[in-house]
Amino acid sequence: MRHVKYGRCVKCGKTYEAVPDLTTCACGGILDIVYDYDYIKSVFTKETLKNRQNFTMWRYRELLPVEDTTPDPPLRVGWSPLYRADRLAEQLGIARLYVKDDGLNPTASLKDRASAMAVAKAWEAGAKVIACSSTGNAASSLAGNAAAAGFQTYIFVPSRAPKGKVAQLMTFGATVISVQGSYEDTFELSKAAIDRWGWYNRNAAINPYLSEGKKTVALEIMEQLNWEVPDYIAISVGDGCTIAGLWKGLKDLYAIGFIDRLPRLISAQAAGCCPLNRAIAENKPWHPMEENTLADSIAVGVPRNADKALMAIRESNGLVVNVTDEEIMAAQKLLGRTCGVFGEPAGVTGAAGLKKLCEEGKIEKDATVVSVVTGNGLKDVANAIAFCGEPISIPGDMDALLEAFDQRNIHVE
């Protein structure tokens, strides 16, 4: 890969050749993929993108760590819509708001970006099996992307994983191991199994290429905004890989001169599980927390990508905000009713955090903000129904309808 220099440890700085099965540093630190930006600038321009018809994450191949000969994986990942959300912006009291709906990826979450990258690198590594642990979305995204590419998968999920996500896994043909314990228990078992059988590792805290897939959400946002940098980008945070990837993508664009400044990140976590935000707020090392939130995709008490995530928040002079489950579900309804976007609880946590910061007066009135919805609401319909209520159920006659409207105080004009 002419455009890739090496992998570098974010802890000790040791460098490694960027081979397809690259994992962690000998010191235990996570690696960062380092590019030759001078070379990239010589072969990649904004004009290149204008003339490119590949509207997937792979339109940015010059900024991705794949060989020229590696084919695009089969599923159409990326180029999700960026909606201008004027009605919601008015309610929040800010000048401009955009909503990036990544729940419209093939398996309905942003994590398809990482899994597509895992498939590409597994091809390069000559692997036949890919495995991971996940709270749900990484699992279903891996299962779907791997199935389309012909890989066998072994996937470890905590027993609390929503049935919608487990249904995806089973439909995609994965061998699913439901672990009776926390995400930490699930991760450790998957790691031991991967080490034992030598499967290709899709765990984001071990495989440095996955953040490179996730960073494409930042590349798309900036291109869709015609390279005009917003003041803030809000995103939900669990393991830390997504916010780290978002920041890496922004820094890549800045390094090659596609953007002239960097936005501030908003790290939104569930109040019942916020070890990274707590570390920032207290200016202390992070410590494990219990996983007390219905937002299962970010219920990570022991974040495995903490170093990169904390670095992203600090380097961007970012804001941290913790939201209750009630605030998360209120944001789900608000997004649905003002934007027509249905996000799962973890997927709308960024929007919930933005709403809270606006209410606290911490976002300037003239600010431009992007809120990333990381997963689709159909992943977890049980919580949506619990908070929005059941539909009106009546016999098929007008008298019953009128009575039901009267009982619910519905006035039809």
Describe this structure as you would to a colleague.
The chain is of the alpha/beta class and 413 residues long. It is 39% helix and 15% strand. The chain contains 16 helices and 13 strands. The chain has a 6-stranded mixed β-sheet with strand order 4-5-13-10-11-12, sandwiched between helices. The protein has a 4-stranded parallel β-sheet with strand order 8-7-6-9, sandwiched between helices. A hairpin with a 5-residue loop joins strand 1 and strand 2.
What percent of residues adopt helix (DSSP H or I)?
Answer: 25-40%
Evaluate the radius of gyration: 21 Å
- Discrete helix count: 16
Structural class: alpha/beta
Show unreliable segments: none
Strand content: 15-25%
- Strands, count: 13
Shape: globular
**Overall mean confidence score, pLDDT:** 95
Main traits of this protein?
413 residues, alpha/beta, 16 helices, 13 strands
Structure described in brief:
The protein is of the alpha/beta class and 413 residues long. Helices cover 39% and strands 15% of the residues. It contains 16 helices and 13 strands.
Map the helices and strands.
Elements: E1 4-9, E2 15-16, E3 31-35, H1 37-43, H2 46-50, E4 82-84, H3 86-92, E5 96-101, H4 112-125, E6 129-133, H5 137-149, E7 152-158, H6 163-171, E8 175-179, H7 183-197, E9 200-201, H8 209-214, H9 216-224, E10 232-236, H10 241-255, E11 264-270, H11 275-282, H12 306-315, E12 319-323, H13 325-339, H14 349-359, E13 368-373, H15 381-388, H16 398-407
Parallel strand pairs: 5-13, 6-7, 6-9, 7-8, 10-11, 10-13, 11-12
Antiparallel strand pairs: 1-2, 1-3, 4-5
